[in-house]
Amino acid sequence: MIGTVLTEPIHGEVARTAWADGMLARLPAAPFPETPPARITAAALADLLGYWSASDGPLYRLLATRLGRLADTAELPTGLRLPPERELATVLSVSRNTVAMAYQVLRDEGMADSRQGSGTRIVPHQCTPAGVHRANGFFTRILGTSPVEADLTLATVECAPQVAAALEDPSSVLSAAARRAITATPGYFPYGLPDLRAAIAGMLTTRHDLPTRPEEVIVTTGAQQALDLLIRCEVVAGQPVVTEDPTFPGVLDALHRSGARPVGVPVGDMTRLERALAAHRPPLVYLVPTHQNPVGVSLPLTARRGVLALAKAYPDTVFIDDMTVADLPLTDDPALPLLAALDSCTPNVVTVGSLSKTYWGGLRTGWIRAPQGIIARLASAKAAADLGSTAYQQAIVAALIAGRNDEILKWRADWLRPRCAAITAALRQYLPAWQWACPEGGLSIWARLPGNADAGAFTQAALRKCVAVVPGRLLSATGDADARRHVRLAFVLPPDQLTAAIKTLSAIDLPP
Amino acid sequence: MIGTVLTEPIHGEVARTAWADGMLARLPAAPFPETPPARITAAALADLLGYWSASDGPLYRLLATRLGRLADTAELPTGLRLPPERELATVLSVSRNTVAMAYQVLRDEGMADSRQGSGTRIVPHQCTPAGVHRANGFFTRILGTSPVEADLTLATVECAPQVAAALEDPSSVLSAAARRAITATPGYFPYGLPDLRAAIAGMLTTRHDLPTRPEEVIVTTGAQQALDLLIRCEVVAGQPVVTEDPTFPGVLDALHRSGARPVGVPVGDMTRLERALAAHRPPLVYLVPTHQNPVGVSLPLTARRGVLALAKAYPDTVFIDDMTVADLPLTDDPALPLLAALDSCTPNVVTVGSLSKTYWGGLRTGWIRAPQGIIARLASAKAAADLGSTAYQQAIVAALIAGRNDEILKWRADWLRPRCAAITAALRQYLPAWQWACPEGGLSIWARLPGNADAGAFTQAALRKCVAVVPGRLLSATGDADARRHVRLAFVLPPDQLTAAIKTLSAIDLPP
User: Fold this and answer.
1) Phi, psi (degrees; rounded to nearest 5) at B370
2) Quick check: B350 and B316 in contact, CB under 8 A?
3) Which residues does chain A have within 8 Å of residue B373's beta carbon, measured at their own beta carbons?
4) B382 shares a domain with B257
5) In terms of domains, do A221 and A369 share one?
6) How far apart are CA B472 and CA B444, in angstroms?
7) Among A477, A473, A31, A484, CA closest to A242
C-alpha cells in the first residue's frame, strides 16, 4: 500500500486530502493551527532554509537536499506551492538556474511536481495533520550539521570549568554517601531531586531576594521544557498568548506547536501590554524583564511594578518572568528585582530559569518557581511528558549551586564581558550605520540594518560568506515589519572571531 | 482580584464558567477532551486517591489532604460533584463519618461547597480548560510521598551496580579525552549524543537482529518521552489511538493529555486489532509484543507476522513496538523478533525502548528507532519540548551499552528471576483462587480476583493493610469491565517481602 501511494501519488493525495478535509471540518477555525498555506513566500522559505549553502557540493544539490528535509519533517507541508524560481533566486543570492535545477531534483526524487500555471508543489509524504505545524526555522539550525566559519546565531556558552570538573569527577562535589543515596532510589523525580529543589530555592531566596520554599520549585529539562510544560498546562489550542516582540525563539516554537496564537507587544511598551491583556485576555504572558532576549535591555523598576499591577488585575492570566539571562549582567549596576520578588501575594506570577547560559547548556537544568498548586499541576504534566529528568546529575548540580554558584557566575562574567566589548567595538568600527542598543546583559545584540534593507536576504548573503546570523523575523511573534529589518547577533565566540565576523559582514552589499 | 475570587466564590465561579462555556462552545464535541464530568463515581475517585491512607494522622484529615491536592491539580475539576458520603465510604472501607468529616474540611478550607440536593462540589481554583484532562491516577502515585510497607505498584528496579559505578566515576568507562570532548560542545543534542545513537543502533543490530543506522535513532528522556513525542507528532486531538487493553499506564496518561481517544483491544486478539484498524483508521497503534505490560505474555511469531501485514495494509498508521521490557526474559526460550526486524520495508513500524527496567530508571534514557524522515520530525518536536536531554550522562550510557550490556542484562536476570519465583509461589500458596498467566518476561503479573470481586475496592482494603497494588481499571484504555476484576502486581521487591505481601493480601475479605 505504501508502494501504491508512491507509484500513484495523485490517488494517494486525493485520499489524504479528503481525510484531512474531514478532520479540519470537525475542528474549529480559530483554535486549530491553520490549514497549510497554499504558498510560501521566498523570504519565509529562506528563513526555513537556514544553513543550506554552508556544506560542500554544488549549490543546486545543497538546496534540493535542504528542501527535501523540510518536506520530510512537514515544515513544508504536502500541497504547498514553492516560490517562483526567480523570486527565490533573488532572496537566496543565487542564479535562477540554481533554483530551477534544485526544483528539478525534487521532481526527479518524487517529492514535488510542477503543473502549468500552478508552479512547483510538494507532493504527498507520510505526514499527519499534527505534523503540519508552523515550524519555527530557528531550531532547525541546532538540528543541522553544516558548520559555518563564524556562527553568531546560537547563544550557547562554553562549559564553566567548575562544572566540567564536577561532571568528570562527581566525588569532587558529592560525598560517597550522597552519591550512593541517589542510586539507591528508584530514580523517578517528576518534581526534581529534593536536594536540587532545595538548592534552587536557596539560590532564589539569597541571591535574588525571592523567598522560596523547595515545594515551590519544579526542576525541568532546561528553560525550554519549563515553557513547554507551562504552555501545555495553561493554554488551549487557539488561545492568544502575549509575548514581547522580538522574543526568545524557543517560546515561539513551543507556542506554535501547541496551537496557541502568539500576540506580540514591543519590548518595554506597557501601554501596548495593557491593551493586549484587555483585548485578548490571554491565559499566559511571557516576558524576559531582565536583559531581554534578544534586545539586551531591562525593564525599569516602575514598569516592573506596572506588570505586577496588571497581574493583580488579570488573576486568571499566568505571567512568566524568564530569568534565564538575568545572571549575566554586562554592567555593574545593581540588579533589578524579579517580578515575583516585588509582591509575595501575586500567585499568578511565575519565574522560569535555567543554568544553560551560566553553567552549561548540556546540563539541561531549568526550573519553574510558582505556588504549590501550579507546581503540582506541572509535575503531573511532567510525569506524562517524561516521568522526570535525569536523576544523578541533579545531585551534582545541586552541590554546585549550593557551594560554587558565586564563583561560577564570576567566571562567566569574566568570560562574557570581553566578548561583548569586542562585538560592540567592531560594530562601531565596521558597521557604523547599524542601529543597536548597548546590551545591559545577556548574550546578544539586536541590530537594525541601515535603510530598509531586508534582514532575511542579508542573512542569506552572510551565509554565503560563512557567517551565520539570525534574521529578526524568526524572533518575532507576528512577523513584525520592523523585526524584518533586524538581525540578532550572539556574542559567544572568542573576541577575535567576533571582530573578524563583523568585519566580514561589513563587506556585504546591503540587499534592497 | 484573586482575593475577590476567594472571598466571593460564587461570583468567581460564574465568571469562569461563562468563559469556559464560551471556550467549549468554540471547540468541537468529539476531538476535544470531554466537558468535565458533572459527577465522579466512588470507584473512579478511589483510583485517583491512590495512597491517601498510608501516612500518619487521622483518616479524615488524610482523605481531605489528598482530595485538596487532586483539586489543586485539576484532576478533580471545578464544579465536579463528589460521590455521596455513603458510597465513597463503602469503596474506601472507612466509616461514613470519616468521609463526612473530610468533606467538611474541604468546605472549611474553601475548596468545596455543599448545596441541598446537589451534594458536595469542588469550587473554583486557578485552573484552565487545558488542566481539565482525564488524568490517570497511576502516576500521581510516583508523585506522592506517602510510603507503604510493600509497594507492588511501580515496576521500578534497583540500579545495576555496573551503572552505579559508572555514574559515580565516569573515568571508569570514559577516557579523559572522551570526557573533555563532551564538555567542549555547546551541549545541545536534540537527536541525542552521536555516540549514544551509535551505541543504541549497534545494540539493536547485533542483539536484536534489527539492522539500524545511527541516523534512524533518536535519544529520549525515557520511553515515556518517546511515546509523548510520537503522540505529539502523529496524533491530532480527538483522533482514536489503538492500544492493547490492559496496557502500560504511561501511554494512556500521554494519550489523555493530548486529547486522543484510546481504543482498547484485548492483548493478542488479532481479529479485534484488525477490526479496530478498519473501524477507526487510527494514526497510531501502540503494542508491547514482547512480555506485554502488564500481562507478561509475548505475541507469537505468526501473530507478529499478522501485525506486519496490517502495517502494510494501513501505511498511514504508525505501529509502535515498545521493547522496554523485551530484555527481561523469565524463561530460556529463544527471543522472538522485534516487529521491525520481520520486514525492513515497512516504514510505519517504529520501535521504542528504554534502559529504565534493565539499567536504572534514574538514567531516564529511552529511544525511538524509525525511518530517518520520522526521526527528523521527532527531533524538531524534541527541540521544542526540551532542546535535547542531559548531555554528559549520554556519553557514560553509550560506553555502558557498547561495553557492558550483556553483563548488565545477565545481572538483571539473576536479580529478577528469584523475585518472579517468589511471587508466583506465594500466589499459588496463599491465593489459589486467583487467576493469572505465568509471565514469560517483564516485571509484573496481571491477576484476576476470584468471583466478581471489584479490584478498586480490594486495592483500597489492601492499602489499609499497607500493601499497594494497581487496580486494573487504571491500565485499561476503556475502563473495560474485565480489567476492573484485575490487579497488577509488580515483583521488584526482595523475594521475602513479596511473599509476605501476598500473604497479607490473602487475609483481606474480598469485597462483593
Assistant:
1) -155, 170
2) no
3) 72-73, 125-126
4) yes
5) yes
6) 12
7) A477
DSSP output for B362-421:
GG-EEEEE--HHHHHHHHHHHHHHTSSS-SHHHHHHHHHHHHHHHHHHHHHHHHHHHHHH
Q: Which residues contact A177 (CB under 8 A, 6 or more apart)?
A: none
Establish if A140 belongs to a structural domain: no
Condensed to tens digits (0 to 9), the pLDDT of residues A166-208 reads 999 999 999 999 999 999 999 999 999 999 999 999 999 999 9
| Peptide bond just before B246 cis, omega within 30 deg | yes
Please tell me whether residues B315 and B197 are part of one structural domain: yes
Pick the closest to residue A397 from B388, B390, B169 (CA basis): B390
Residue B17 shares a structural domain with residue B89? yes
Burial A181-220 (b: 16+ CB within 10 A, else e): ebbebbbbbbbbbebbbbbbbbbbeeebebebebebbbbb
Alpha-carbon dihedral sign for residues B375, A468, A474, A229 = positive
Neighbours of B41 (CB within 10 A): 14
Number of domains comprising chain A: 3
Domain containing residue B364: 175-404
pLDDT single digits (tens) A327-342: 999 999 999 999 999 9
The number of beta carbons lying within 10 Å of the beta carbon of residue B11 is: 12
Domain boundary among B363, B381, B404: B404
Distance from CA of B445 to the nearest CA of A (A): 20
Dihedral sign computed on CA atoms, order A444, A449, A454, A460: negative
Q: Are residues B93 and B59 in the same domain?
A: yes
CA–CA gap between residue B424 and residue B181 (Å, rounded): 49
Give the nearest partner residue to B380 out of A143, A154, A360, using CB atoms. A143
- Interchain contact A62–B (C-beta under 8 A): no
**Cβ of A57 under 8 Å from any chain B Cβ?**
no
* Tens digits of residue pLDDT in B369-399: 999 888 988 998 999 999 999 999 999 999 9
CA A471/CA B1 separation, integer angstroms: 41
- For residues B81 and B79, what is the distance between their CA atoms, to the nearest angstrom? 6
How many distinct helices (H) and strands (E) make up chain B? 19, 14
**Alpha helix locations (H) across B109-193?**
140-143, 161-168, 176-183
